[in-house]
TrEMBL record:
Belongs to the aldehyde dehydrogenase family. Homotetramer. Keywords: NAD, Oxidoreductase. Its EC number is 1.2.1.3. Residues 28-490 form the Aldehyde dehydrogenase domain. PANTHER family: ALPHA-AMINOADIPIC SEMIALDEHYDE DEHYDROGENASE (PTHR43521). It is an enzyme of class 1 (oxidoreductase). The active site is at E262. GO terms for molecular function: aldehyde dehydrogenase (NAD+) activity. It comes from Desulforhabdus amnigena. InterPro entries: Ald_DH/histidinol_DH (IPR016161), Ald_DH_C (IPR016163), Ald_DH_CS_GLU (IPR029510), Ald_DH_N (IPR016162), Aldehyde_DH_dom (IPR015590), ALDH7A1-like (IPR044638). This is aldehyde dehydrogenase (NAD(+)).
Length: 509
């Protein structure tokens, strides 16, 4: 543990506020980062006080002045260097991520790879901040739109993707000319501090001002709540639970700010009669058990046709039995712990609710004990039989619980599918073209992500990521989401000697 901390320039006690090149002597309380792997304290963080927050914000505001004036392709060059710095530290950073979040090594390395990928993507994008040109109805006039940097932006992240989600925002915001103030989850502060140290070195080497990228870790929700009401931040990007998103959305809209919300999911896979069941089982297994069921895109519901329901359930139970559960840093382990004992208690409560509502646990759901398991954070993933109208099935329980729901017609399956209040990711397994197209049509899945013959989880950074309904409507990472981080300006230039008005209006004296 000490070796990883040293390699990543972390100390037993760390400053919780940094401006890229400077670390503040924070005046707040101590926060302990407890590993879900064995319940030990990894290191401590001195949290930011209100004054520290103000200092960070000041730097972010003044850095915006300088950074927004750097040509976008040169901003892209800085981001390229950040991606390379992450490449060099990928293994160490992934090891810390495993220790702090409990992700298995391969998924932790995958998360760091996402940061590298989005840096590469953003570098290319920095030369492609395109605006349209339009045909003016007035003679001798030209119309076009241009995109300007927006300002310092606030980024709030959740515990389960402690650094990748920041990078989706930060790398794109940087090439857009914005500066970024990051409030990570207090459950996992160290991985974010280590990441900031890696990118901070690039900022220093490039002779850039402090405040381009900042981090501020404060007690509980204090910093987050200050951030959302702060008028100096024209955009708040917030990732987390629906409950958090509701509060953030209200606070940001009250000041007429812009928010980008990435909230909870309740993702389903429909498995039709002629689906390739072995493919479906592999995808559902990764989707439901990967990251111990703690992904926003985790498969939480399987809507299976009655004719294949039992064979699919049996195949899934057989696959679940084989999942090695244990220390996520060990080779071969596929499922680590939940983030904390509270998450385990919530899982148990959800299983009780399921039974009370008429459902049945087909496999798993036990809290494990003995040896490392005594950390109290290890469970067996659960497969349950349920109906789509059970209240518990419509909630996101952030744990490895899979609800299996039988259906008879595809219309019924889609109705069950879309009955969840959240709308993040979805999938259908079918070899029938009409079923696949129906699912992808406007009558089909109502989610931001809809897949055919792949699972709900494990998106690539090139696509726009996010969901509808209670998931919040935000989009991050790929496609044209860079536009969210910039302000659009429509420009009309009159190069004639006349002053014609649009729509033929006359106003001459
Ligand atoms: P959470 O809502 O408890 O916390 C998320 C972040 O919000 C934390 O940094 C927290 O400190 C902050 N926060 C909480 N209340 C706040 C407030 N009133 N004002 C400002 N900030 C506040 O979520 P979590 O347990 O860390 O993460 C799990 C949740 O995140 C799940 O619901 C999951 O689906 C969701 N998630 C969504 C996505 C996505 O892209 N849609 C990605 C990852 C996680």
């Amino acid at each position: 543990m000490e070796e990883i901390l040293q390699k990543l320039n972390l100390s037993p006690v760390n400053s919780g506020a940094g401006t890229g090149t400077e670390w503040l002597e924070c005046g707040g309380d101590i926060l302990e980062s407890v590993s879900p792997v064995d319940g030990r304290i990894i290191a401590r963080v001195k949290q930011a006080s209100n004054e520290d927050y103000e200092r960070v914000m000041d730097r972010a505001v003044s850095a915006f002045d300088a950074w927004s004036g750097v040509p976008a392709p040169l901003r892209g060059e800085v981001v390229r260097r950040m991606g390379n710095a992450m490449r060099e530290r990928k293994r160490d950073l992934a090891a810390l991520l495993s220790l702090e979040v409990g992700k298995i090594r391969s998924e932790a390395e995958g998360e760091i790879q996402e940061m590298i990928d989005i840096a590469d993507f953003a570098t290319g994008q920095s030369r492609m901040l395109y605006g349209f040109t339009m045909q003016s109805e007035r003679p001798g006039h030209r119309m076009y739109e241009q995109w300007h940097p927006l300002g310092p932006i606030g980024v709030i992240t959740a515990f389960n993707f402690p650094v990748a989600v920041w990078s989706w925002n930060a790398m794109i915001a940087l090439i857009a000319g914005d500066t970024v103030v990051w409030k990570p989850s207090s459950k996992v502060p160290l991985t974010s501090l280590a990441t900031m140290k890696i990118v901070g070195r690039v900022i220093e080497e490039q002779g850039l001002p402090e405040g381009i990228l900042s981090v501020v870790i404060g007690r509980g929700r204090d910093v987050g709540e200050r951030l959302v009401v702060d008028r100096r931040l024209p955009l708040i990007s917030a990732t987390g639970s629906v409950a958090m998103g509701r509060k953030v959305a209200q606070a940001v809209s009250a000041r007429l700010g812009r928010s980008l919300l990435e909230l909870g999911g309740n993702n389903a896979v429909i498995v039709t009669p002629d689906a390739d069941l072995s493919l479906a089982v592999r995808a559902i297994l990764f989707g439901a058990v990967g990251t111990a069921g703690q992904r926003c895109t985790t498969t939480r519901r399987v809507i299976a046709h009655k004719s294949i329901f039992d064979s699919l359930a049996n195949a899934l139970v057989a696959a679940y039995r084989k999942v090695p559960i244990g220390n996520p840093l060990e080779e071969g382990v596929l499922m680590g712990p939940l983030i904390d004992r509270e998450a385990v208690a919530k899982m148990q409560k959800a299983l009780e609710a399921l039974k009370a509502q008429g459902g049945r646990v087909l496999y798993g759901g036990e809290v494990l004990s003995g040896g490392l398991y005594d950390a109290g954070t290890y469970v067996t993933p659960a497969i349950c039989e349920a109906r789509s109208d059970y209240p518990i099935v419509r909630q996101e329980t952030f744990a490895p619980i899979l609800y299996m729901i039988p259906y008879e017609t595809l219309e019924e399956a889609i109705e069950y599918h879309n009955s969840a209040p959240q709308g993040l990711s979805s999938a259908i397994f079918t070899n029938d073209l009409r079923e696949a197209e129906y699912f992808l049509s406007h009558r089909g899945s109502d989610c931001g992500i809809a897949n055919v013959n792949i699972g709900t989880s494990g998106a690539e950074i090139g696509g726009a990521f996010g969901g509808e309904k209670e998931t919040g409507g935000g989009r991050e990472a790929g496609s044209d989401v860079w536009k969210t981080y910039m302000r659009r300006q429509t420009t009309t230039i009159n190069w004639s000697g006349e002053m014609p008005l649009a729509q033929g209006v006359r106003f001459d004296v």
